[in-house]
Structure formats: structure tokens, C-alpha cells
Write a structure and sequence with these properties.
This protein has two helices and 25 strands. By secondary structure, it is mostly beta strands. The longest helix is centred in the middle third of the chain and has 6 residues. One of its GO terms (molecular function) is complement component C3b binding.
């Protein structure tokens, strides 16, 4: 928070009033803004040539700082210039530890300095600690196993041994199956978001309709393929009556299965 202290200086000026000369006091406002104190930087310090500069500094002035060996500034450099602003030093001076050597354990990596914590190889190769520069140390229970298979479909591409929080996987259905739900799942706190389902399409059987003495109520559909949850309307042959419940004549494709209603001849009884 920037604070301002206003100092009123009373000055005198010579003015002419009705042929009389007099000294008249006037007021001048002088504003002092909060300056920037000497920056104390963990694992770093300001440049030697600026170490003896006058502090606190005014807005607009700057200093350079550098990080110790094994540490980097957030922008990836070792020497950074920061400026005094209304909100303090900008950017905030920090020194973050670099990625050190990694030990390959199974198909995962453990970073020195992060006991019992895991991180992904891709982040290690970027060589930093805070996104997008540095890899995080992650507890093993927040990473995800490979996404599970689903009936009627598969995971696209090659599965990874472990997935970091926020990473995604994509599903696709086999031919003849219709997907319900989102095709993309995300690793969150060691588990995957809800998987989609691949529901089998239904193929209308002329044989089954003839066996049950029924036909389509509407003949406008050119294909005999129906998607999951799609409704199929039936009716009885001429001179046949319904044996099944009336609602059964509005059948639905249920994961590749159609429950056909039945009719019987009115002449049989």
C-alpha cells in the first residue's frame, strides 16, 4: 500500500494590491511516496556495485541481483534487474533451486531434495520448480495410473506409465458404438474424471419383427441402424392386435439391444 505524506511549505511572494506592495504567503504541496527498502533475497543478493547504494530507493530506481550457484530467478536467469514501484520491488526478487540430478525409479523419477515425492520426467527436463519454469515435487498419490479401458472403446494413443495432475487422456469408440459423455478425462488428485461410455448401435431385425407380427410405424427412415437411446416405433400387422404393453411399442435401442413388442392374430380367437 502506497502512503503519501503531504508537507505544506509556506512561501512568500511579492504582489501589488491597489498600488501597495506586500508579501503574501502561498501554499505548496510536496508529496513523498513510500520508497523501496534494501531487498533481502534468500539464496541471492544484490550486485556488489549497488550494495552501497542509498536505501530506501525512490520509485523508478533499480538494482540488479544475482542468485547463488544452484539457484535461478523465476525467469530462468542468474542476474535480474528489479525496479522500485508503488507496490515495492518489481518483479519480486526470488531465487529458486534448480533441478538437480534425478534418480530413475521404475518408470518414475524422484528428485533430490523432495523425499518421498515424485515428479514427471517431462517437467524435470524443463529444469525448474514453478510452472512454467520449474517442475513441482508431487506426492505419489496425486498422480494417476494409466486411464482404464472402457467397453466398446479404447484410449487414443500410447498410454503413459503415470499421469501428473491436470494431464488428460482421450477415448474413442469402436465402429458401431456411440459415445455418451465427454471423450476427454483429466487426472485430478490421483483419480480420473468420469469416463465416457460407448453404447452399441442397434440393427433392426426384419426376422425378429416378422416373428412378433410387427412392423415400423413410420417408414421414412432409410437405415436400419439406430443409435443408443434412439426410439423405434412399432405397430401390429393388419388384423393383428397388441399382446405387449402399449408402451413397449415405443422401444428404445439399449446398448445394442432392441426389445421387440409382440402382436397376435385377431382370427386365432
Amino acid at each position: 500500500m502506497v502512503t503519501a505524506v503531504t508537507t505544506i511549505a509556506r512561501l512568500c511572494t511579492l504582489v501589488s494590491i491597489s498600488e501597495l506592495t506586500a508579501w503574501v504567503p502561498i501554499s505548496v504541496s510536496i508529496v513523498h511516496l513510500k520508497p523501496c527498502d534494501y531487498p533481502v533475497i534468500e539464496n541471492g543478493k544484490i550486485s556488489e556495485r549497488m550494495a552501497h547504494s542509498y536505501f530506501p530507493m525512490r520509485i523508478g530506481q533499480y538494482v540488479d541481483y544475482h542468485c547463488r550457484n544452484g539457484y535461478l530467478a523465476p525467469n530462468g536467469g542468474r542476474v535480474v534487474r528489479i525496479y522500485c514501484s508503488k507496490g515495492g520491488w518489481n518483479p519480486e526478487p526470488k531465487c529458486l533451486s534448480k533441478c538437480t540430478s534425478t534418480i530413475s525409479i521404475s518408470v518414475r523419477l524422484r528428485k533430490k531434495g523432495c523425499p518421498n515425492l515424485w515428479l514427471g520426467a517431462e517437467q524435470v527436463q524443463r529444469g525448474s520448480h514453478t510452472p512454467p519454469w520449474m517442475p513441482k515435487c508431487l506426492f505419489s498419490d496425486v498422480t494417476c495410473e494409466p486411464p482404464p479401458e472402457i467397453a466398446g472403446g479404447k484410449v487414443q494413443g500410447v498410454k503413459k506409465p503415470r499421469y501428473l495432475p491436470g494431464e488428460t487422456a482421450h477415448y474413442q469408440c469402436w465402429q458401431g458404438f456411440q459415445m455418451t459423455g465427454a471423450s476427454t478425462v483429466t487426472c485430478q488428485n490421483g483419480t480420473w474424471t468420469e469416463r465416457p461410455q460407448c453404447k452399441g448401435n442397434c440393427r433392426l431385425s426384419e426376422t425378429a419383427m416378422a416373428r412378433n407380427n410387427i412392423k415400423l410405424r413410420w417408414s421414412s427412415k432409410r437405415s436400419n441402424i439406430y443409435r443408443s437411446k434412439e426410439t423405434i416405433s412399432f405397430k401390429c400387422y393388419f388384423l393383428f392386435r397388441e399382446v405387449s404393453n402399449p408402451e413397449d411399442f415405443e422401444a428404445q435401442c439399449q446398448d445394442g439391444v432392441i426389445n421387440y413388442p409382440r402382436c397376435e392374430s385377431q382370427l386365432e380367437k
